[in-house]
Design brief:
Layout lengths: L17 E9 L6 E9 L6 H5 L6 E8 L2 E8 L4
Antiparallel strand pairs: 1-2, 3-4
Amino acid sequence: MRNLLACQQEEELDMVKLQFSIIKKRYKNGRRVYHYERVSLDFPREFHELMKTLRNRRLKMDVTQQGKTTNITLTECEDS
């Protein structure tokens, strides 16, 4: 499996892009609107089969940053 974070060293780049969107929803009475920001990450096609194995599982997410490198680690939660 190729490493997404080592994209600068490879000839063919595996690029991911964070997408930010602002969601607008109305309160129940319909007069006022509240906003919140949503962040999503689209994975390259070659990782889709791997991601399907994680579907419907509880995952813990840890994010660390070292210089220009950001690591996102997904760990399956133990059932209690």
